[in-house]
Amino acid sequence: MSGYLGCKGYLKYLGFIPVLFLALAVFMTGCRGQGDEPGKGQQPSLAAGTPDSIRQIAEARGLSQKDVEAALKTYIPSGRFDEYVLFASGGHSGQVFVIGVPSMRLLKTIAVFTPEPWQGWATGSAETHEILTGGDMPIGENRTLNWADVHHPALSETDGDYDGQFLFVNDKANARVAVIDLRDFETKQIVKNPNTISDHGASFVTPNTEYIIETTQYATPLPFHEYAPLEEYKEKYRGLATFYKFDREKGRIDESKSFSIELPPYWQDLCDSGKKVSDGWVFCNSINVEMATGGINHGAPPFEAGVSQKEADYLHVFNWKKAEEVYKAGKVNDLNGMSVIPLDTAIAEGILYFMTVPKSPHGVDVTPDGNFIIASGKLDTHATVYSFNKIMDAIKNNNVEGKDEYGVPILTFADVVEAQVEIGLGPLHTQFDADGNAYTSVFVESTLAKWRLGPPIYNGPDPWTLVEKIPVQYNIGHVVCAEGDTVAPDGKYCVALNKWSIDRFLPVGPLHPQNFQLIDISGENMQLLYDMPIGVGEPHYVQMVKADKLKPWLVYPEVGFNPMTMSVDPEAASVGNEKIVRDGNTVKIWMSAIRSHFNPEHITVNQGDKVTMYVTNVERARDATHGFAIEGYNINLSLEPGEASKVEFIADKPGVFPFYCTEFCSALHLEMMGYLLVKPSPGS
Ligand code: K7E
Ligand code: CUA
User: Fold this and answer.
1) Contacts of 348 (CB under 8 A, 6+ apart)
2) Where in 102-226 does DSSP place strands (E)?
3) Most exposed of 2, 184, 266, 268 (fewest Cβ within 10 Å)?
4) Contact status, residue 316 vs residue 356, Cβ threshold 8 Å
5) What ligand 2 atom has the least distance to the C-alpha of 662?
6) Å from CA of 606 to ligand 2 middle
7) Mind listing the pLDDT tens digit for each residue in 99-142?
8) pLDDT confidence tier of residue 21, bands split at 50, 70 and 90
9) Average pLDDT, the chain
10) Strand residue runs (E) in 483-557
């Protein structure tokens, strides 16, 4: 324990100087692992009256009463369902993880930006390949992206509440946004921003999913594929906030009705939409108002120091309803097919204002009632709370404390701030419960802090004060609480999304899993319930939705259904129309799949033929999925009941290639196969 106290003492006397920040983070990390010994439980101490059978299990396993309570709170018996669902960004995996709460069982990964063979995602089907490459870079040839850095999932909303229909996620590395339809949990669209290469303040939705918001992270010349040396950073480099119009009917982003706003080359960071009273506004943080360009290799200060020289950065305040009017009035430039509102226009039209935020902010979160905007500095110990009404007053009265280099008005800090709440060192992100409390992740300290909001959302004693902190293991990034970023949070659970696990799991080599820690927030004190390792990528943000808001299909509604169009495909194969049709060197095959055979089973083509296969799973039974793989041809489809898929390939390799079903669908699954015979062309 002395090590832990030593760390605390160190913290107390340390000034929060940016250059020391890294050293501090390293030091704090070194402090860890000195508390509880991993793998060894505390002495069991079950309450009197606990049945002997339970007492014996607890004693044999070295479980305390708290451990047993935690186990009981998370256990879901076979055949029963979880109460909540987490949609977790998959980080580098380019995917989304679907996890049940409170069991913390992984229910599914949704393939988004990377090929995923089980779902047949871009591993053979023409449709999925078309979606995946729909977001490819508009530069270079053969530049098919095969990874992504997924940060922020956003569920579609109606009146500021999750409606369970769609999910959007971003790819920070390449400024892409994807649309997932929650009827079949499949990705339907990937859009690449033509003018920026990286994003971070994405995906965030407006309260009725009118728009999906995406802001640049690292500034580049505008557009990004133009060249400009770093010496011209201030003149040529720019950020962007893009508002993608969502067509709910079609379930797609409509790029032709989307627009961007040109921004100074600060690094725009996370965003949140105003809601209720603040509907119509969007708030996005930024860092690097210094416009540092790094250059440690030329003796310049490294980015980490340059970017955090100043005491404050700017929180961007956007009037998106006004921006929409300006866009519709045509006061835009066309840039690579995207309408861009120039920075000067945004200023002149009252679309953009700044507010200062102390010490390298990161997250920004709007309270459920829409009255307050909370931002936290990574090098600060406070959450800074801005009042929406005060912001509106400052704008109306032109109460500014100056302008930035580009002429953006900066609202007077003292007049827009409602409170600054002492939270702990390194606050990042904030969520809410139903009782007027906020929950902020505190990175450097590795804690989750619960604190009280103030009137009108919380009208009890001691507003704007810290209530309790719970240690987490370790380095918490985001926190998610049940429906905790909507107009109507549920409370009950939060999950700490920890970057480091260090000593929490059986060692699996130097690359450690992330650690999702489920925390019960329903009682007087927060209680840690469960650690879930995530060993597939680094999740950032997660949303937690009430399970009964989701209404997914259990099978596709009709046989021959094409998930890309979400309708019956007129070209789909069906029972009775299976056939092989040759036209010159083009061969088309209509194939059905049902337990336990494909029809046709023999396909003979000539080397060099262009082959198109329409394969339909004609099953109507739940879970009767078939796969369709052609050995040696790098093809695997997943055909869920009713689904129709299309495969196109050139039969360039002669020989005999078994094709088979890759899902163990029946007792005679191994027999569900056939032969593709490719006759060598004469002379080959
Ligand atoms: Cu990792 Cu929201 Cu991209 Cu914070 S972000 S942790
Ligand atoms: Cu169909 Cu195995």
Assistant:
1) none
2) 106-111, 154-158, 161-171, 176-181, 186-192, 204-205, 211-215, 220-221
3) 2
4) no
5) 2
6) 27
7) 999 999 999 999 999 999 999 999 999 999 999 988 887 666 66
8) very low
9) 93
10) 491-498, 514-520, 527-534, 542-546
Whether the pLDDT of residue 37 is over 90: the answer is no
Q: Which residue has the tokens 């094409």?
A: 562
Token pair belonging to 598: 């494909």
Contact 162, 156 (CB under 8 A): yes
CA of 352 to the centre of ligand 2 (A): 57
pTM to 2 decimals? Answer: 0.94
CA dihedral 17, 474, 486, 416 (to 10 degrees): -10
Ligand closest to CA 664: 2
Give 672 Cα–ligand 2 centroid separation in angstroms. 6
Cα of first residue to Cα of last residue in the chain, in angstroms, is 75
Which tokens belong to 583?
């036209």
Q: What distance in angstroms lies between residue 446's CA and the mean position of ligand 1's atoms? A: 15
Q: Which residues pair with 72 in a beta bridge?
A: none
Q: Cis omega before residue 18 (within 30°)?
A: no
Q: Which residue has the tokens 């440690």?
A: 296
Q: How far apart are CA 175 and CA 266, in angstroms?
A: 16
Contacts of 84 (CB under 8 A, 6+ apart): 100, 101, 102, 482, 490, 492, 493, 544, 545, 546, 547
For the beta carbon of residue 607, count every other beta carbon within 10 angstroms: 17
Residue nearest atom 1 in ligand 1 by C-alpha distance: 540
Provide residues with CB under 6 Å of ligand 2. 596, 626, 661, 663-665, 669, 672
The answer to whether residues 193 and 175 touch, using CB atoms and an 8 Å cutoff, is yes
Res 134: pLDDT: 85
Q: What pLDDT does 106 receive?
A: 98
- Predicted confidence (pLDDT) at residue 30 exceeds the cutoff of 50: no
Cα–Cα distances in angstroms (integers) from residue 665 to residues 43, 187, 191, 626, 642, in the given order: 48, 25, 35, 7, 15
- pLDDT(374) > 60: yes
Closest ligand to residue 617's CA: 2
In whole angstroms, what separates CA 109 from the centre of its chain?
A: 12
Alpha carbon of 194 to ligand 2 centroid (Å): 42
Which residue type, as a one-letter code, is found at position 35? G
Is residue 371 pLDDT above 60, yes or no? yes
609 in Cβ contact with 591 (< 8 Å): no
Q: What is the pLDDT of residue 42?
A: 54
Which of these ranges, 37-41, 81-85, 280-284, 371-375, has the smallest mean pLDDT? 37-41
Residue nearest to atom 5 of ligand 1 (CA): 540
Closest among 282, 436, 439, 244 to 366, alpha carbons compared: 282
Whether 231 and 291 have beta carbons less than 8 Å apart is answered as: no
Whole-number pLDDT of residue 234:
98
In angstroms, rounded to a whole number, what is the distance separating the alpha carbons of residues 607 and 595? 30
What pLDDT is stored for residue 45 in this prediction? Answer: 74
d(CA 486, CA 482): 9
- Which 3 state secondary structure label does DSSP give 325? helix
CB neighbour burial string for 200-239, b if at least 16 within 10 angstroms, e if fewer:
bbbbbbbbbbbbbbbbbbbbbbbbbeeeeeeeebeebbbb
Amino acid letter, residue 282: V
Identity of residue 668: L
pLDDT for residue 24: 46
In this structure, the residue with its CA closest to atom 1 of ligand 2 is: 626
Position 381, amino acid:
T
259, 84, 257: which is closest to 162 by C-alpha? Answer: 84
pLDDT at 1: 32
Distance 413 CA to ligand 1 centre (A): 25
Which residues line the pocket of ligand 1, CB cutoff 6 A?
151-152, 200, 270, 362, 428-429, 477-478, 540-541
CA distance 265 to 352: 14
Among residues 205, 150, 140, the alpha carbon closest in space to that of 172 is found at 150
At 29 the pLDDT is: 46
Distance 478 CA to ligand 1 centre (A): 6
